[in-house]
Structure formats: C-alpha cells, structure tokens
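Data deposition worksheet. Section B asks for the primary sequence of the deposited chain exactly as it was used as input, without tags or linkers unless they were present during the calculation. Section C holds the resulting structure in token form. Section D is free text for depositor observations; keep each observation to a single sentence. Incomplete worksheets are returned to the depositor.
Section A, Depositor: J.P.
Section B:
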Amino acid sequence: MHSVAATRTSRRKTNKSGVTKFANTDPKKPNRILRSLYKYFWYTTSDGDTRLATSIGTLDRVPQQINDYVFHPKTFADDEYPSTFPPNMPWPPKTAQDLLLAVGSEGEECIGNSCYTDTQCYDHSCTHSFSTFKQSKKTWHDHFDLRETKDKGIGVFTKTAFKTDDVLGWYAGEILSSNTRNNQGDYLMEMPIGATASSPPESPCPSDSEHTPSSPSPSSSNASSSALTHDTSAMDMTVLIDASRRGNWTRFINHSCKPYTEFRMRRVGDVRIMDVEAVRRIPVGVELTVDYGGSYYGVDTRRRCRCGVRGFVSAKRRCS
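Section C:
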C-alpha cells in the first residue's frame, strides 16, 4: 500500500478511512524531513494537495531522490570475473564506470550529453560525459509532474511535449550483484555487463505495485519486459539496478499495454545506461507509460494489469 504524508508542518491525525493526514502546527518549527524538496519525491493528490511519496505500508521509509548510480565495491568482492568482460579489467570493480563499461557493438548508441532530444553519436571513441549527462537531468521537474492516479497510485505526467525517439531520462539506483539474496524487490532493473549478445537486453521494469494501494507488491526480479525491443540472452551476464530506496523519477513510470515509452540499453560516452525513449509522439498533460511486458502481466501470472487499454493483459487472462 502506498502511504502518504502532507507537506505542511503538522501533527499526525488518522481519519476513518485509515489514511494518515496532518494537522497544522507552528510554522516556525518545520518538520526536518521537509527541509529538502529535492531530496525526496513529492506528488500532487487528486484534491490538489502536495504530499511526500513513501514506501509500501509505512511512513518510516521514504525513497530518496538521486540522479546517479550508487556503487559499493564490496558488493562484488565474492563474485567471479565475468566471462563477458575483456581481459585485464579491474576486478572487483572500483567504480560503477568500471562495472558498466560500454563494450561490444554499442558504437552507434551513444545518446550524447543531454536529454529531451533524439540526438545520437556514431563515434565509437566519443568524449561525451556521463557527468554532464546527469547534470542535464536536474531539470526533470520542468518536464514532468508526479500525480496521484485513479487506480495506480503515483504516476508521471508530462508538462512538455516530446517527439518519437526523444530521450526522456534514465534509470538510476543502487547497483547490486545478480547473486544478491535481495533479488525480489519491486524496483529492480536488469542490466547486462561486459560484451552482450547480438541483441540488446530485455529488462524487468519496476513494478507499479508500490503505487497501487489495492494490491500487494509483486517481485519483478525475474519478470521480463517488452519495454526493450529484444530479449536478454542467456549468454549475457547481468547486474541489478535497484531504485527501491534511492532512484530518480523514472521509478514512478506506470505500465500500459499501449505505452508512450520504452527502456532501452544505451551508452553515454563509455558508460552503459538504461534510458527512457519515446516510441511515439507524447502530448502535454498525459501520463507517461511503459510496457512491463507479457511475462510480468502475462496470462500465467496472478498480477493485475490496470492500464485499461482495450485487450489489456488482465482482460486476456480473465478470458482464457
């Protein structure tokens, strides 16, 4: 269940519906958590209030807003040298860039230094900078709003229009080993490392279940998604990008069987990322969506697709 907290300084009150709200208190003594509007995520409710996005079922766990990879070298200390890596790479990796070095047939997939364009760089040895690219995403509030939806919790809505193939963002979070015990989270994105097979990878898209009060949170660690155009090969070695505790706005993109975007594996300079790209024209004021994939909401699962598109996967399951 997706819990919420009001922005105004207050004391806690609980109404008959069980939703936690807050009563006004002395405005000269603001709650400590409200001092940084950019450290956390804030969304607009259906009645126009601004509230703090919190984790499932509790006000004590608040996902932090970051725009980077979170990397701990010790995470990979016990992992073997990946067979997909070129020889003589540093191992265990010392930085996220060491681990996510773009190698293989990715020379035509650099997206440059900035978002909100469809620019591509065809130079295999280009000097585009991941640091510069991350800076360009600090203005995401100018392009997107987080709002409460009717039945999917929090969603991402557009404030500007985009054209097909525009890059809208990228998936940030903590890098985990694929061998981690904590591989059943709601916001896991699978990312190949080293040289990949001829096809780009498929990635599980984060579940929208954290934003959905009426259903439990399914794990997405072993779910596949058609958000990318090709499947992950069994030959690929992967890591997990976990945005459950720390991530950027892309963690709130909900599913649709007729989506506006896809997650695609790209590079910025020599660093591999999973970006969000428009697959058709996107007008102002619509909810941004991605297809979580047939395996995630497929006919053999118990998960419910709530997108409402004609022929959506939950309807197919009920008819099967």
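Section D:
The mean pLDDT is 76.
The first strand starts at residue 2 and ends at 6.
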